[in-house]
Amino acid sequence: MPKILGGSIEAHRREVRARVFEVLRAQLYERGFDAITLSGIAADAGLGRTALYNHFPDKESLLIAFVEDEANRYVDRLTEAIAAQDDPAGQLATFVRLQLRVLAEYHLPPGTALESALAPSAYRRISAHADPITACLRDILAEGAAAGRWPAEDTGVLIPMITAALGSRQVIEVPSEQLERTIEAAVRFVLRAVGARELPDPALDLG
């Protein structure tokens, strides 16, 4: 019988998932999705292939579970950081910073490549995790307009333009020592794009 990690079945499941996700995170960054294999994940996680297959029968199911876990963690992190900002401009700046920092941390395929790599149902499950993030951005834009921090505009136009800009890896593919300066330039760009009348002090960022 395989060794039970953590003293219980549920603890074992959490430990296996944590190990596997840690390895997958590193391999996504180093190799990209196409080069990853379940056998390679199992070896680096110190698991037998059969043990891994008991949790994730294929690479697609592993990626879905990983993205769902990361998305849930990120939404919690984003919600907490934005709640710490009183001003909508500060909230929008925090949103931009977190989106770009997370993009710099992970190496998932861009949307179109990911869509072609997964079955339509799987891609829809992954895409669904953008909904609370989009809702958060919509609320920030609406609150900023209501507070007079920027002009009221159609969020149906603004949101896809902002998310497209923040989803481009070209923005954050810079030397590490230039990353924060690049992110701050992106913050200023987005705030000016929505018509912010005053830019927040980056020293107040808690994200």
Automatic annotation (TrEMBL):
Known DNA-binding region: 37-56
Keyword vocabulary terms for this entry: DNA-binding, Transcription, Transcription regulation
InterPro entries per record: DNA-bd_HTH_TetR-type_CS, Homeodomain-like_sf, HTH-type_TetR-like_transc_reg, HTH_TetR, Tet_transcr_reg_TetR-rel_C_sf
One Pfam family, short name: TetR_N
Domain named HTH tetR-type: residues: 14-74
Database matches in PANTHER family: HTH-TYPE TRANSCRIPTIONAL REGULATOR BETI, HTH-TYPE TRANSCRIPTIONAL REGULATOR RUTR
Protein name stated in the entry: TetR/AcrR family transcriptional regulator
Organism the protein comes from: Amycolatopsis samaneae
